[in-house]
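Quick one from the shared queue. A colleague (R.T.) flagged Xylose isomerase-like TIM barrel domain-containing protein as missing a structural entry in our internal table.

Convert sequence to structure tokens.
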Amino acid sequence: MTSLPTPPAESTGRWKPAIATVSLGAASLHSITAKIDAAANNGQQGLELFHDDLAQLAKTLRSQEHEPTGRSDREFEIDAAHAIRDLCAERGLQVLALQPFRHFEGLIDPVQHAQRIDELKHWVQLAKVLGDNLFILIPSSFLDASEITGDRDRLVADLVEAANVAFPIRIAYEALAWGTYVNTWEDSWEIVKRANRPNLGICLDTFNIAARVWADPTSPSGRRPEIADKELHLSMERLAREIDPNRVMMVQLADGEKVDPQSSLLKTPGLPTLLSWSRNARLFPCEEERGGYLPIGLVTEACLDGLGYTGWVSMEVFSRTTTVDDPSVPEKHAARAGRSWRRMLERLTVAEENKVDSF
């Protein structure tokens, strides 16, 4: 018996559903064309483009050359950006972000900093090709403390420089839960405010927020002590009160899977525990049947309704399931994302109607 197609994800007057290409499969296994088709088939309207997918398409274009032309990798990436924009336009999708521009701020070595600025200039060229209103996402650095500084004045100065180099392309700064010095939304928002550039804003991620304040995947309970409930509530109250929603460029949704504290999913060599967990065991929101357990309902309500945010809401799920060598992976993950978005909208509606935390 053939299953019915998944209904499209809903769009509201306030939020538009999007998905990250990393959520639809590994770049080395699943083509960007398959990912774009899957997103469009399941109601997503926007696409967070991971650079890995663009670079993989550039490699494919180079391999199709009949004779070597001596063109650079960057030139092939420009070609790939044109192709991706055309593919998305044909399917009614908007490229809304190019990411992740990793390990930028706070570099101690001036040579490395100069190299990253040069690379950022290339990304700005890519962004101008990919769309008319997208941004480059810079996640907080998680390099070793011997390689980067935590001096706030320096971090602010680096983000100012990035915004100036990119202008008028926008830059979004995101705090990763495992960031060496910047690992909370409060940290990233302080830096963005101090930098005070018109094209610089913040990205809010439900997984990173909950993972830092509330979760402890190495604990049998999967969480920190009870005080974490109060700490998360207070943090979300501050978020709704302090952040300017006009400076929020995107809200990303993801849950985390409760795993055995001794699981290898938490023990990737050379990676912090939270990062290993994030790369292997994120889930789409409202997937409790798959082990989702973080209080992302509370976080989502604060980021959307509490903050009064309107705009793109993207599913950003890293998972071991995306690395399965199966051509159905993009479609399956896009369908899961569509279901999760509808479930989240239902829960937000209930919470709004009852004026209580229904999560």
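The radius of gyration is 20 Å.
DSSP finds eleven helices and ten strands in the chain.
Added to the table.
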